[in-house]
């Protein structure tokens, strides 16, 4: 083929596109075989005849699109993506084929098409300048098409993945809620075994799911997570047996900043799954406005038991503390002093050291406390101790609802 200058470029491209188009059946087989060699992970669902038919038709239709474009204006404005290509992207997302593998197939095809174009141009176009111009324009068109196409199928792929993730999360959350309500549940879709030991977790704060995943990664225990109520995330650690060693490993973790956790006691089976979750929720209700990064149910079990009836717990606190329960700085100071006094075994000197004040100051405050109570502090030592521990939760809830 001789060159007449730029005028000869379009006819040469039309001729090249025609020869490429005639070889589409062979290119489909050759291209898919090469992809199977380079990208075996894309073909993991070849047991699904519908998927095989879709990706074969997508390949064929896209070759026609490319060659038709090469023979014409090579303009993508206003063009529509071949429907099988969009369906291929949706199915690939649904089958869990990685986006990188899916997109790499386009680059393999681009390389094969250009290799074939070089071979045909070498045989059919004698004029070197025209041959270079034809191949340059073919390359430009292929890059334009592949960039245009991958952007569109990526959007479809990612949208499908997002929908699937949301749907799986919704179904998993419903399964967990059914399980917590003791309804019959097929646990298989959870991907988490029930006939094992469980430790319930409630995380809240900044990115609570990250904290649950950090526990899983550090301990190697199985983990089930769902979105909880409000800004919480619920989780369950699972293993055939969870003993002191596993619990020490959890206690030894460094918790991510900005997130807090409440942790239930180890319990076994489906009933244990529910029990440890209730314990974690109880610990969360006690700890949610405090400052401790981690609260273990075992450490607050007495408070959790007492708080099962909030109205009774509030009446108990108000009765035992009397005016010490008032919402003012002096009352709070006296409550803190009494708590330090009890924590140090009724040792005023040790309590003063813990509070950073003189021991005479503690003695003065203790006399003020007894005056307010109208009785000696040790007359109802156990009741006062429980009331002091309950007060932050009960008074918080009372003032929050006021």
Would you summarize the structure shown here?
With 402 residues, the protein is an alpha+beta fold.
SSE order and pairing:
Layout: H1 9-22, H2 24-38, H3 49-71, H4 83-94, H5 99-124, H6 128-180, E1 197-205, H7 208-219, E2 222-227, E3 232-239, H8 244-251, E4 259-263, E5 267-268, H9 269-287, E6 294-296, H10 297-306, H11 310-321, H12 329-343, H13 348-355, H14 359-373, H15 381-400
Parallel strand pairs: 4-6
Antiparallel strand pairs: 1-3, 1-4, 1-5, 2-3
Helix pairs in contact: 1-3, 1-6, 2-3, 2-5, 3-4, 4-6, 5-6, 9-10, 11-15, 12-13, 12-14, 13-14
Structure description:
This protein has 402 residues and is of the alpha+beta class. It has three domains: 6-164, Globin-like (Orthogonal Bundle); 192-305, Alpha-Beta Plaits (2-Layer Sandwich); 309-400, Arc Repressor Mutant, subunit A (Orthogonal Bundle), CATH 1.10.10. It is 65% helix and 8% strand. The protein contains 15 helices and six strands. The chain has helices spanning 9-22, 24-38, 49-71, 83-94, 99-124, 128-180, 208-219, 244-251, 269-287, 297-306, 310-321, 329-343, 348-355, 359-373, 381-400, and strands at 197-205, 222-227, 232-239, 259-263, 267-268, 294-296. Strands 1, 2, 3, 4, 5 and 6 form a six-stranded mixed beta sheet that branches. A hairpin with a 4-residue loop joins strand 2 (222-227) and strand 3. The longest helix is centred in the middle third of the chain and has 53 residues, at 128-180. The N and C termini lie far apart (92 Å). The relative contact order is 0.06. Mean pLDDT is 87; it is low at 1-5.
